[in-house]
């Protein structure tokens, strides 16, 4: 079976395969992001970049728990102006790089998009969903009207495709997605981390310096799959699934739920080389099941007979 079988076309983008490095897990340096591409990722998303440099929270910012980890890094990043200089060094390289941005309102998002847009990368991802920084993240992403204004403002600054990254920490997931799509979002990413709090029994206090943070890793995969499934029921736009993927079976679960591509975060902390193995597993599964293109299995779990009925036509 040819590797062309797992090529992805979504939102005007062409990716060599459907696996991307998720935003932020390796911090804001581009080194790991570029390494992920060398290890077989079809794309990679940068750390979320805001209008000004931020230091982030004091340690501890990450705590391991069963099935994953809880982090509250506080969106440390160099700010848009400095990050634009870093991106400038990739000029002409034509990498499948997505730049993640955040802000408190439409003006801040638009300013960051404007500061970065002239560089060589393929798409923006809007972080509407960080659960542990007051004033940005989910406080933006739980408000459909604000999301509509943010997406419109960013779209007016760029011709690049714009993906809205959604939060699982709201009952208004579909409403927020609708606002993003109606305002011109080219695709959706689901999900960011799940709001959580580990507690340390020795100190008797929350284990993270910030108190609460975001749970990621295997424990959140069924939540992420449910979100992708709900979104695919309603929308024909490209969807990137994210949350708890560490094997090819997990990636396939997301395709069946309706994702066109899959992002991997936490599992890459232990093994950034994971992408090649998962791609090979997906290819072997497709061969065994008789799929000749990824789009044939996207959303197949929505059919009553599962894989035994004709798959949905690609959007
Ligand atoms: C340490 C850490 C930092 C993260 N930073 C960001 C970020 O800057 N922007 C963002 O949109 N998501 C961020 N995320 C969320 C991930 O991109 C991803 O949505 C989430 O971890 C679920 O995927 P996973 O279970 O594969 O890690 C971060 C996650 C972790 C663990």
For the record, the count of structural domains works out to 1
Shape: globular
Name the average pLDDT: 94
The count of helical stretches stands at: 10
User: Largest sheet, described in full?
Assistant: 8 strands, parallel, barrel
Q: Which features would summarize this protein structure in a list?
A:
16 strands; 18% strand; alpha/beta; eight-stranded parallel beta barrel; four-stranded antiparallel beta sheet; 315 residues; binds flavin mononucleotide; 10 helices; TIM Barrel
Summarize this structure briefly.
With 315 residues, the chain is of the alpha/beta class. The chain is built from 10 helices and 16 strands.
What does this protein look like?
This protein has helices at 30-38, 80-88, 106-116, 138-141, 144-155, 173-182, 221-234, 248-257, 267-270, 274-289, and strands at 8-10, 13-15, 19-21, 43-45, 62-65, 68-71, 97-101, 123-127, 162-166, 187-190, 194-196, 199-200, 205-206, 213-216, 239-242, 261-264. It is an alpha/beta fold. The protein has a single domain, classed as Aldolase class I (TIM Barrel, Alpha-Beta Barrel), CATH 3.20.20. Strands 3-4-7-8-9-10-15-16 form an 8-stranded parallel barrel, surrounded by 7 helices. Helix 2 packs parallel to helix 3. It binds flavin mononucleotide (FMN). Residues 22-25, 47-48, 62, 71, 73, 75, 100, 127, 130, 165, 192-193, 216-217, 220, 242-245, 264-267 line the site of flavin mononucleotide (FMN).
Helices and strands in order, then pairings?
Layout: E1 8-10, E2 13-15, E3 19-21, H1 30-38, E4 43-45, E5 62-65, E6 68-71, H2 80-88, E7 97-101, H3 106-116, E8 123-127, H4 138-141, H5 144-155, E9 162-166, H6 173-182, E10 187-190, E11 194-196, E12 199-200, E13 205-206, E14 213-216, H7 221-234, E15 239-242, H8 248-257, E16 261-264, H9 267-270, H10 274-289
Parallel strand pairs: 3-4, 3-16, 4-7, 7-8, 8-9, 9-10, 10-15, 15-16
Antiparallel strand pairs: 1-2, 5-6, 6-14, 11-14, 12-13
């Amino acid at each position: 079976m040819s590797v062309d079988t797992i090529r992805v076309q979504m939102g005007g983008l062409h990716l060599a395969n459907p696996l991307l490095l998720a935003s932020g897990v390796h911090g804001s340096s581009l080194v790991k992001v570029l390494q992920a591409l060398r290890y077989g990722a079809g794309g990679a998303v940068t750390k979320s970049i805001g209008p000004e440099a931020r230091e982030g929270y004091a340690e501890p910012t990450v705590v391991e728990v069963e099935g994953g980890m809880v982090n509250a890094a506080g969106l440390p990043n160099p700010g848009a102006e400095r990050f634009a200089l870093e991106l400038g060094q990739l000029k002409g390289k034509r990498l499948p790089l997505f730049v993640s941005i955040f802000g408190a309102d439409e003006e801040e998002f638009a300013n960051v998009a404007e500061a970065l847009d002239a560089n060589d990368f393929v798409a923006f991802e809007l972080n509407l969903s960080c659960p542990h920084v007051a004033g940005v993240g989910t406080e933006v992403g739980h408000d459909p009207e604000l999301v509509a204004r943010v997406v419109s403002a960013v779209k007016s600054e760029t011709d690049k495709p714009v993906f809205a990254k959604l939060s699982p920490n709201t009952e208004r997931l579909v409403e927020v997605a609708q606002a993003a799509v109606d305002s011109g979002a080219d695709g959706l990413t689901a999900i960011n981390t799940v709001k959580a709090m580990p507690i340390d029994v020795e100190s008797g206090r929350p284990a993270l310096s910030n108190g609460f943070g975001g749970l990621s890793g295997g424990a959140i995969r069924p939540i992420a799959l449910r979100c992708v499934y709900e979104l695919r029921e309603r929308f024909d736009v490209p969807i990137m699934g994210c949350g708890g993927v560490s094997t090819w079976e997990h990636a396939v679960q997301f395709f069946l739920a309706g994702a066109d591509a899959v992002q991997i975060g936490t599992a890459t902390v232990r093994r950034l080389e994971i992408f090649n193995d998962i791609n090979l597993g997906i290819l072997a599964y497709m061969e065994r099941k008789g799929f000749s293109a990824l789009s044939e299995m996207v959303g197949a779990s929505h059919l009553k007979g599962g894989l035994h009925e004709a798959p949905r036509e690609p959007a």
